[in-house]
Amino acid sequence: MADATVLPEHRGDPLAEQRAMARSAAVVERDRGVVAVSGEDRLSWLHLLLTQHVSELPDGTATEALVLDGNGRVLHQMGVAHLDGVVHLDTASEQLPQLLDYLRKMVFWSEVEVRDASAEVAVLTVVGPETPTVLAAAGVPVPARPLDVRAVPGGGLVRRAPWPGPDAADLVVPRDGGWFDRLTGAGARPAGSMAFEALRVEALAPLVGVDTDDRTIPHETRWVGSAVHLTKGCYRGQETVARVANLGRPPRRLVLLHLDAGDEHLPVPGDPVVSGTRPVGRVGTVVQHHELGPVALALVKRSVPLDAELVAGVDERAAPARIDPDSVPPEDDAPAPGRAARDRLRP
Predict the structure, then answer these.
(1) In this structure, what CATH number is given to the domain that contains residue 120?
(2) Which domain holds residue 293?
(3) Which regions span the lipid bilayer (predicted)?
(4) Which of 32, 157, 189, 228 is 20 to 30 A from 79 via CA?
């Protein structure tokens, strides 16, 4: 099981820690569990279970993937890193027991070993434009591109990350290796989870169970492309993914909300988003951003205008809210490919 240590929310000044992530470099220990999958069938077996195309994932490469239920709703999200014959899956610690249980139940006759490595390794993330300099000074190989993976001397791996901030790298390294101190000694400011969460929200990167509910499908949360491969099949929930991608649009979309609120009374995950008296969405992660102020991720109905006057939260947590129009991709309102093709055939 994942290590039960409570990780610090901040290390003295969460806003300064955010600024370091944006302007120089900071390091944070993440609340992530790690599953190691080895064995001759590791890639072909995972390919049948995950939404991502991993059957030929090259050694030294990373990606992202989901596990869906039979109706295409998101159950688990994970980072995937393939190095030296082992696939490392990292996911939110509270999601780890369910993911591990599912994977072990699906082994059957496949030549794979599924092992919980969370007690052995920690997930550290260095964020900021000086990330390559910090890694090099700490003796860590610097992956050339996002999603490249390199071995770390003494054990573990480093994965160049596409978010958050201007540059980032995730390290999956032995807990007893003193890596947090080595990275701070190499120039990274020590940071807590609040700083990382603020940049995660800015990056519009959802967290399962916080920014999603039991109805969430991948198309609502920007996971199509990064974590879902649309042309592969043979995984649970694939029919829903293909149908929505080709013939429809998801009922909701992930947006960034700007909140008109102080520090004391902010909405919490699961609170409603209301337009007038009509519920139109749900609040996800809420943070104080060093530049944007109080902001939140939210799933809102696609029919909600981008300039709508909204309220997020209830009672003393209710705050006026507005959608950041830059958080909605321009192509989001384009017709679905299959629907457009069908319409062109109509007289």
Answers:
(1) 3.30.1360.120
(2) 251-331
(3) none
(4) 189
